[in-house]
Design brief:
The protein is an alpha+beta fold. It is 15% helix and 28% strand. It is elongated.
Length: 178
């Protein structure tokens, strides 16, 4: 009798809900497939305020600062060159004499996987030079920079291979795909 009880407990432990059985049996064709994903985020603390879920550090040794989203609209650098080089995207920002006026510590990069903000301090007195993109054409993993005599070169490493026709995503295509 004890063996039958143990076997019954094992069967009931393996037995799942009808929803889980349906999903296991029919896979992505199951009627209840939309319920298959389980939430994997942190436990809710009961507060309605937004909170930071994670923070990522720059792995290239450059200073990354936390910046409010409203500052992304303060771009005063409007001229730059863009080059899609396969796995990398390069931006060439022409600033006359930037290599003499600024050091690496005057350059700040703030980026997420889909946004970018470059701030150049001490180029013009009392006015930092800013180039920012609230939404890039694709996801990036890291950004690095080099300061030359008359330009700053930003190198963005793409998260996925693919061609970028422009650096920013305005929601509507600015070109015709043939």
């Amino acid at each position: 009798m004890a063996a039958e009880e143990q076997q019954g407990e094992t069967v009931s432990a393996i037995k799942q809900s009808a929803l889980e059985e349906n999903i296991l049996a029919k896979g992505s064709n199951a009627y209840y497939f939309a319920h298959a994903n389980k939430p994997t985020g942190p436990e809710w603390d009961g507060k309605e305020e937004p909170r930071l879920l994670s923070r990522s550090e720059s792995h290239v040794g450059h200073r990354v600062t936390a910046r409010s989203s409203f500052e992304y609209s303060k771009s005063n650098i409007t001229s730059y060159a863009f080059l899609d080089g396969g796995k990398k995207v390069k931006l060439y920002i022409m600033l006359q004499g930037v290599g003499e006026k600024c050091t690496d510590s005057d350059i700040e990069l703030d980026f997420t996987d889909s946004s970018l903000c470059l701030t150049v301090k001490n180029y013009k007195p009392d006015e930092p030079q800013i180039l920012s993109f609230a939404k890039l054409a694709g996801e990036i993993t890291t950004v690095s920079f080099r300061v030359k005599e008359d330009k700053i070169i930003l190198t963005l490493l793409k998260a996925k291979d693919g061609e970028w026709h422009t650096i920013n995503d305005k929601g509507i295509p600015d070109h015709e795909v043939v």
